[in-house]
Amino acid sequence: MAKSFEMNMSEGSLLKKIILYSLPLIATNVLQLLFNAADVAVLGNFIHDETLAEAAVAAVGSTTALINLIVGLFVGLSVGANVLIARYAGKGDDESAKKVVGMSMLVSVILGVVLLFVGYFGSRTFLEWMQCDEEVIDMAAKYLRIYFIGMPIMMLYNFAASILRAVGDTLRPLIFLIVGGLVNLGLNILFVVAFKKDVEGVAIATVTSQAISAICCVITLLKSKGYCHLDVKHIKFYKRELLEMIKIGLPAGLQGCVFSVSNVLIQSTINGYGKIIMAGNTVASQIEGFIYNACYSVSLTALAFVSQNYGAKKPERIRLVVKESIGVVAVLGIVLSGAVLLLSSPLCKIFNDGEEVIKVATNRLYLVGSTYVICGIMDVLSNVMRGLGRSTTAMIVSLSGSCLFRILWIKTFYLLNPSLTMLYVVYPISWILTVGIFVALYFPTMKKVQRKLLSE
Question: Is residue 274 left, alpha or beta, with left meaning phi > 0 and alpha meaning psi from -120 to 50?
Fold first, then answer.
C-alpha cells in the first residue's frame, strides 16, 4: 500500500489521528446505511399501491435481525484478522501480516459459500420461526434468497475492508463504497420504477453494489506494498495465525450472533403487532442505524488503535486511546441523537408518509434513538477489551449485560405489561447495565496487560 494511506497509530498526536481515522469510517458506515436505507425509501415512495408499499417495507425490515444473526458469527472472524494485522503492523512484522491477509481472503470466500447455502435454503423456515406476518413472508423470503446468493462476495468485501482499516486506510474503502452505493441507488430506481419490481429489485441492486466494492478492495490489496499486500502465494491456511484469528474473532462473532438472537426475539414480538407496527419499527430502525453506525465507527477506531499500540507495547498510549475514544463517541452520540429527535417527523417521511407508520416510528425514536450515546460507549469498551486480547471477556460481558438481560426482560417484565414502550425501554436499560460491567473490569484488566507488556 502507498505510504500515504497508512497510519502509524503508535506515534504522534493521538486525538488528531483518531479523528482522521474515524471520519472516513463514519462516512463509510453511514453511507452504507444510507444506501441500504435507499432500498426502503424507494420501496416506500415509488410503489404507488400504498398497501403493497407498506408490505414491501415491512418485508425488508423484518429480515434485518435475521440477516445479522446468520451473518454475524462469520463476520466476527474479520475482526480477528483486523486485530492480528494491526498488531503485526505495530510490531513491524511484515511477513506475518501478509500471511493473515492471504489466509483471510480464503476464509472469507469459504464462509460466504457456507452462508449462501444456509441462507438460501433456510430463508422461509427462519422467517416462520420468527413468526413473520403472513402478508409479508413471501416477499421477505424472496428478498433473503437473493441477498444470500451474493454472500460470498459480501464476505470478501467485509474481510478486505477490515484488512485495509487495520493499517489505517479508511479512505479507500469509503471511495469504493460510494461507487458501489451510487450503483445501488441507480439500480434500485431502475428495477422498482422502470421494471416494476419490488423487494426482488432492491435485493439484486444490493448484491451488485457489494460486488463492485469488493472487487475494488481486492484489487487494492493486490497492488498494495505495505502490511496489507495480498500475495497469491499466501492464500492458504497457516495454523498459528488461523487459531489466533479464531481465538479473537470467534467470540466477537458469537457476541454479534447472540445479540442478534435477542434482537430476533424482539423483532418476533414486534411482528405480532401487525404490518403497520412492523413498518413503523423498520423506519425508526433505519434512522437509528445512522446514529449507531457513526458511534460504532469510533469503537472500530479504538479497536485498531489499541491493537497497534498493544503490538508496539505502549500501555500508557492504550489508556489514552480509551479516554479519547469515549470522549469522541460521547460528543458524536449526543449531537446525532439530538438532531434526530428535532427532525424525527420529516426524517420518517423520507421512508414512509403513512400517518400511523410515522407515529409508531417517532415513538420508538424518542424511547430508543435518544440513548444511543450509551450504546456507543458500550461498543468502545467492548472493542477495547478485544484489542487487548480479551475477546472472550468482551463476549461474556456483552452477552450477560445485554443479550441475556433482554431475553429475561421480554419473558418477565414485558409479559406483565405487554406494550411497545415496555419492549423498547429494554435497549437503554441493557446498555447501561453492560457499560457498568465493562467499567468495573477495565481497570484491573489494564493493569494485567501493562505488567505483561512491560515484562516481555
Answer: left
How far is it, in rounded angstroms, from Cα 350 to Cα 247? 43
DSSP 314: -
Residue 413: CB atoms within 10 Å: 15
Helix (H) or strand (E) holding 166: helix 151-166
Q: What is the pTM (predicted TM-score) of this model? A: 0.81
Residue 136 has pLDDT above 90, yes or no: no
Neighbours of 54 (CB within 10 A): 25
Q: Cα–Cα distance between 26 and 221 in angstroms, integer? A: 22
Helix axes 239-271, 391-398, angle to 10 degrees: 10
How far from each other are the two terminal CA atoms of the chain, in whole angstroms?
A: 30
Q: What is the mean pLDDT of residues 361-386?
A: 92
In angstroms, the CA 15 to CA 10 distance is 12
At 203-224, the pLDDT tens digits run 898 899 889 999 999 999 999 8
Q: Choose among 92, 234, 214: nearest CA to 154.
A: 214
pLDDT surpassing 60 at residue 109:
yes
Which amino acid, residue 286?
A: Q
Helix, coil or strand: residue 129: helix
Helix (H), strand (E), coil (C) string for 63-89: CHHHHHHHHHHHHHHHHHHHHHHHHHH
pLDDT tens per residue across span 226-263: 888 999 899 999 999 899 899 888 888 887 777 767 77
Output the pLDDT for position 4.
56
- pLDDT > 60? residue 2: no
Give me the residue label for grid cell 502465494.
233
Q: Output DSSP code: residue 274.
A: -
> 3-state DSSP helix/strand/coil percent for the chain, to nearest 5?
85, 0, 15
| Closest by Cα among 294, 296, 295, 290 to 350 | 290
Nearest to 221 by CA among 229, 213, 232: 229
Rounded distance between C-alpha atoms, residue 38 and residue 217, angstroms = 23
CB 143 within 8 A of CB 62: no
d(CA 328, CA 301): 11
Predicted local confidence at residue 428, as pLDDT: 93
Residue whose C-alpha cell is 457499560: 435
What CA–CA distance (Å, rounded) separates 378 from 372? 10
Grade residue 330 by pLDDT with cuts at 50, 70 and 90: very high
Mean pLDDT of the chain: 87
